[in-house]
């Protein structure tokens, strides 16, 4: 493990090119080890001292490069002793093929292929990535002894009234982990969607199948490698450093001022006649005034009823049968 000149930039180059990454020592103690293509373990010097195991996923969508750069800068500081690792951590590059080409995906949206959905799309190149990510998340958390946290880091093309927001996947019978939402607020997250139905996303898989505290984070604008203004990601950067360095455990007092929303219903496109009555440029969380006809599809109309409804992830160009947007409404914790 004598490779002092090995940087995180080289690690990313090697990983994206499909080359093996050597075992590396972290200068302040601990090690970095490649588990399989695009998956790396960061192990603290005293493995038993980690009472929170952290899975970080970046690049599920290949055009969302800022989270990759944020996490690589942290790895670089760990390699060179500018940060000391306190948590057993696994880092996953979600879709290396798409990251290489700067595309959201090559054949199929990877974040619609989890929780076994990949088995129905075996010919899609993303199916193999969904399997790899599910398997390496499962093996990582199966040898966990303490708290378990999964953060799946994204950025978005569309603007958002809340620039940084989190999605808590549907928890079924489990209670909301208030202290995690408190910590997300400290990390600069401005709003949280509490999802109310199963989904084929990675965070739903780790939450539901593995019982992990899991969140999808939308952290701002998607730009190509080298064009990100990383100062806009300082909140999550600081929070991840405090978490991995052991200064906090990914929990904090919940602030009731943090806006929370729940999905009221999905706008499901039934036919090619579907029309969304919002501009292409409409931002996420744009309020929908009472009486406004949000969308129409033949005889069917979706009308805003007031009560603080807002639009999330509008996309009228999806294929019929798929979700063309979510109508959300404010909610408070009991
Ligand atoms: Zn994304």
UniProtKB/TrEMBL annotation:
UniProt KW keywords: Arginine metabolism, Hydrolase, Metal-binding, Zinc
SUPFAM superfamilies recorded: Zn-dependent exopeptidases (SSF53187)
Names of the cofactor(s): Zn(2+)
Keyword Zinc: yes
Alphabetical list of InterPro entries matching this protein: AspA/AstE_fam (IPR050178), AstE_AspA_cat (IPR055438), Aste_AspA_hybrid_dom (IPR007036), SuccinylGlu_desuccinylase (IPR016681)
Cofactor mode of binding and number, as noted: Binds 1 zinc ion per subunit.
Enzyme nomenclature, EC number: 3.5.1.96
Keyword RNA-binding assigned: no
Swiss-Prot/TrEMBL catalytic activity: N-succinyl-L-glutamate + H2O = L-glutamate + succinate
Pathway the protein contributes to: Amino-acid degradation; L-arginine degradation via AST pathway; L-glutamate and succinate from L-arginine: step 5/5
Active site: 218
Signal peptide span: none
GO biological process: L-arginine catabolic process to L-glutamate; L-arginine catabolic process to succinate
Matches recorded under CDD domains: M14_ASTE
PANTHER family, A to Z: ASPARTOACYLASE, SUCCINYLGLUTAMATE DESUCCINYLASE
Stated name of the protein: Succinylglutamate desuccinylase
Recorded name of the encoding gene: astE
């Amino acid at each position: 493990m004598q490779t002092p000149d090995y940087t995180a930039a080289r690690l990313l180059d090697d990983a994206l090119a499909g080359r093996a990454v050597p075992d590396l020592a972290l200068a302040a103690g601990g090690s970095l080890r490649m588990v399989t293509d695009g998956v790396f373990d960061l192990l603290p010097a005293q493995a038993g001292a980690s009472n929170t195991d952290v899975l970080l996923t970046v690049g599920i969508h290949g055009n969302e490069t800022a989270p990759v750069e944020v996490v690589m800068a942290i790895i670089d500081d760990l390699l060179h002793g500018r940060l000391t690792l306190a948590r057993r951590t696994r880092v996953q590059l979600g879709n290396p093929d798409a990251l290489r080409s700067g595309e959201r995906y090559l054949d199929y949206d990877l974040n619609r292929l989890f929780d076994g959905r990949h088995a129905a799309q075996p010919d899609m190149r993303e199916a193999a990535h969904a399997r790899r990510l599910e398997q390496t998340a499962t093996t990582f958390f199966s040898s966990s002894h303490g708290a378990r946290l999964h953060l799946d880091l994204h950025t978005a093309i569309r603007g958002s009234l809340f620039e940084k927001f989190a999605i808590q996947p549907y928890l079924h019978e489990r209670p909301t982990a208030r202290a995690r939402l408190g910590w997300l607020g400290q990390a600069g997250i401005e709003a949280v969607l509490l999802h109310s139905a199963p989904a084929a996303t990675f965070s739903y898989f780790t939450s539901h199948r593995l019982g992990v505290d899991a969140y999808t984070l939308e952290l701002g604008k998607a730009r190509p490698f080298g064009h990100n203004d990383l100062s806009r990601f300082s909140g999550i950067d600081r929070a991840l450093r405090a978490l991995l360095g052991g200064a906090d455990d990914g929990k904090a007092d919940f602030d009731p001022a943090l806006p929370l929303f729940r999905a009221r219903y999905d706008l499901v496109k039934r036919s090619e006649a579907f029309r969304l009555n919002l501009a292409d440029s409409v931002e996420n969380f744009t309020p929908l005034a009472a009486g406004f006809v949000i969308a129409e599809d033949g005889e069917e109309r979706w009308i805003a009823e007031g009560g603080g409804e807002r639009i999330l992830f509008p996309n009228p160009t999806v294929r019929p049968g798929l979700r063309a947007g979510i109508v959300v409404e404010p909610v408070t914790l009991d």
